[in-house]
Amino acid sequence: MKISAASRYGLQAFAILLISALLLLHSTFRGTLESAPETKQSSLTDRHLPIKSIPVLNVPTSSAKSIGLPFGHQDLAFNFSSVPFNSVLLKRAPPREPLAWPTLVCNGGIFLEKIKAAFEGSGAPGHEFSSGDLDNGWTTVPPFPGAIPATSLDKYRASAFPESRSKKLEIKSINVKQDKNYQTNEGTQITNPTKAFSNGLYVPELKLIISLNSLSPANVISKRNIGISKDNRDKQLPPLSKLSDIIWLNWKTNSPNPKELRYIARNKIINKQSGSAMDYLFLRDSGKNPQKEDIPFPGLEYSGDSEELKALLATPNGIAVAWILIDHAGELKGRDEGLTRRELKVNIFEVDRDQFMLWDIEAQSPR
Asked: Are strands 208-215 and 263-266 parallel, antiparallel or unpaired?
């Protein structure tokens, strides 16, 4: 079959255009490779290096490293909605997105100052609740499935309190739920219970509270009324609405000497913000990957005014500890005895892929 001259010229032109396009593509690709920075093996530090167009603050760590970490806001509101944390539920992955570390450290520093003021007597006193406050919309309920007292306590007895393993301890499992109509501080009758709850173990002999599962009324009301001002949301709260007050009241009414409280533990942490902050520290400071191996007690320990302790105190699982100390300083050992200093200590560890915080709040003499 003969091909006309016009068709032949057309095919030649098409071939020339195709070859030109391929040459141009090859040149562009090669130039991109040659101009790109040299790549290297990914490391923990690389994963947290600054991202382009995000402001960076260099924060020195306890190991004398300086890692640039992006931050989204430096207002002092305890709002984590814009913080890029990873999920830590079940098979959680190590944190791959940068944490808002400077904001956590800043907020934690504010909490430490409030704690100091409370025990020196210069802070505003918190409301002292009584068992009657639980009668306003709260009921005692059986433990949640899986919140088995022996299992939870054994994780601490085998590690943090080894000397207590041979003792027969009195363990009080207290579980409350906000499932009834209630009256607000302003006298308004609310007929839509929050379904908030708090499950905990109280071990007076060890001076220990283990907070198992919890959801505060304040958290529920906040999510239920998105777009409504905080003042209007607060008007819908039951008087007993903060997790810290609920935990303290249960301790106060079930301990023969409430002032002696020393340890507050957060059990099987699944909160995304808290878990990601802990994963970051596990990866950075333990040399272990918490996704693949345990970090048994004592795990990692931070104390004083270290940036790590501040950051953990500002996570959702640390904030309740801070408010117990701030609001109930007058009911705890310390202020009345002249022990006005609180040098907090926290251990974070992991057992069977479950994460734990153990806070030591022992009162000390002023320096």
From this structure: parallel
Pairing of strands 172-178, 363-364: unpaired
How far lies 321's CA from each of 67, 234, 312, 328, in Å? 28, 21, 10, 11
Q: Angle at which helices 272-281 and 316-327 pack, to 10 degrees?
A: 100
* Burial classification of residue 229, based on how many CB atoms lie within 10 Å of its CB (0-12 exposed, 13-18 middle, 19 or more buried): exposed
Q: Which tens digit of pLDDT belongs to each residue from 225-238?
A: 777 788 888 889 99
Q: What are phi and psi of 239, to 5 degrees?
A: -55, -40
Local confidence band at 288 (pLDDT 50, 70, 90 cut-offs): confident
Look at the block and give the residue holding tokens 């030591």: 360
pLDDT exceeds cutoff 80 at 144? no
Q: What is the pTM of this model?
A: 0.70
Q: What is residue 15's DSSP assignment?
A: H
Per DSSP, the three-state class of 259 is helix
Instruction: Give the C-alpha distances (Å, rounded to integers) separating 17 from 6, 7, 24, 26, 113.
Output: 17, 15, 11, 14, 72
The pair of three-digit structure tokens given for residue 228, joined into one six-digit string: 């409504």
Q: Which residues contact 142 (CB under 8 A, 6 or more apart)?
A: 175
pLDDT confidence of residue 179: 94
For residue 36, the SS3 value is coil
Q: Which residue has the tokens 């990692």?
A: 300
Tokens of 260: 């002696």
Which segments of 36-158 does DSSP mark as H helices, in order? 44-47, 101-120, 149-157
Confidence of residue 358 (pLDDT cuts 50, 70, 90): very high
**Neighbour-count burial of 269, counting CB atoms closer than 10 A to its CB (0-12 exposed, 13-18 middle, 19+ buried):** buried
Outline where the chain has alpha helix (H): 5-35, 44-47, 101-120, 149-157, 217-224, 230-234, 243-252, 272-281, 307-313, 316-327
Task: Tell me the percentage of the chain whose pLDDT exceeds 70.
Answer: 66
Query: What CA–CA distance (Å, rounded) separates 14 from 207?
Result: 85
